[in-house]
Amino acid sequence: MKTNDTYHKKAKQLKKHKTLATSFFVIMLVLYITMEVTIRNHTAIWMGYVKAFAEAAMVGALADWFAVTALFHHPMGLRIPHTNLIEKKKQDIGDNLGAFVVDNFLNPETIRPYIEQMDISVTLTKWLDKESNKQIIIEETSIILNKILEDLNDEEIARFIAKKGNELIQKVALNKVFASILQYLLERKEHEKILSFLLEKIKYYIVENEDTVKQRVKKESGFFVPGFVDNMLANRITVGIANFLHEIEEDKNHRIRQEITEHLYKFSTQLKEENKWNEDFEKIKSGLLSPENLNQYANDIWQNIKATILKEITNKDAAFFNYLHKTISGFALNLKTDQGLRDKINKQVKYNAFRLILKNKATVGNIISNTVGNWKGRELSEKLELEVGKDLQYIRINGTLVGGLVGLLIYSITQLL
């Protein structure tokens, strides 16, 4: 809407100034005709001077009208050579404009003073000092990350995870992995904690289920064995086993513990060295990690990761927002108090700005050249006429007046001769 208003405003101004310039020509034409008719009936010296002024002014007006019009159009629709120059020479205009900008604006001598005056660290410090600007960074970061995640192809990501996961798993010998884990636990005596836990649970289970033991003893004993004997026997069995388990649990050097540890060490060695275990684990791996299962695992993993990240970056109370705000605030504080950091930032910005401008100045020239060259000739001509056409109408006005004065001067000299 604003662009259309600007266009109509400029078009209206151009038309107004064209009318003004044309009116000067019309005035000179009327003046010339008036003098020509009047001189036939009344002879006066001054009339010749006025006629000469008007005659030369018309010539100047027409000449400058032709010159100004020829820039943007064919005058009176006549395809006279070297007219409608803007439309015909748009590529040359683009090339020359691009070269002009590069040579005069993007050279080291021109840009160095401006870059040296830059103090981006101070500007950045003041900007980050406002809480609203910190929130802008956080919100924009959230929006960008959210957009990136939403635009990702879930199927491709899942396939990538499945592929890399499969490559990794195929290189892994599960039997050796489990053997290493077991040896690690044994060396750190972590198995002792597991064994103590199991002994306690078994002991508790036996004590709590003494009635079950009694029933089993009664079932296995003969009919001639009295019930109190069965109960006593069951009690002795329960208490004996519980006491035995308690001894193993309390005595870290108990023979049973040592035997279990020795068996576990032997088992870890067998896991690592015997082909049987390698084959068994490969079968398990092939079954659990079939292509279908692996793809499903990968998809589930990715969906969980994606959902977790999306939840973090969209919930303003999440740890992500708090961490980001804390990081930005910390950086802002360092920037405000650390002169060395500010100097380092300024130095890097100035160096890279200077280097990038000079490195890409040819690209800037090409962009200008290609942009102008790709415009339609008529469109470019209209754009330029709207921008400078108003001022060019003053050339027509000046041409009218200057032409008249030159004509008057020539006529005056002629009369003196």
Give the topology, please:
Elements: H1 2-41, H2 45-72, H3 85-88, H4 90-105, H5 108-116, H6 120-128, H7 131-151, H8 154-171, H9 174-187, H10 190-208, H11 210-220, H12 227-250, H13 255-273, H14 275-288, H15 291-314, H16 319-337, H17 339-359, H18 361-374, H19 377-416
Structure description:
With 417 residues, this protein is mainly α. Among the domains are: 2-83 and 376-416, no CATH class; 155-289, no CATH class. Helices cover 87% and strands 0% of the residues. The protein contains 19 helices and no strands. Helix 2 packs antiparallel against helix 19 (377-416) and helix 8 crosses helix 15. The protein is rod-shaped.
Radius of gyration, in Å, reads 49 Å
Largest sheet: none
What's the helix count? Answer: 19
Q: In total, how many beta strands?
A: 0
Structural class: mainly alpha
Helix content: over 70%
Strand content: under 5%
Give the N-to-C terminal Cα separation. Answer: 64 Å
Q: Can you tell me the residue ranges where pLDDT is under 50 for at least 5 consecutive residues?
A: none
Q: Tell the overall outline.
A: rod-shaped
In short:
This is DUF445 domain-containing protein. The chain crosses the membrane at residues 20-40. The protein is mainly alpha-helical and 417 residues long.
Task: Tag the structure with descriptive keywords.
single chain, 417 residues, mainly alpha, 87% helix, rod-shaped, DUF445, DUF445 domain-containing protein, membrane, transmembrane
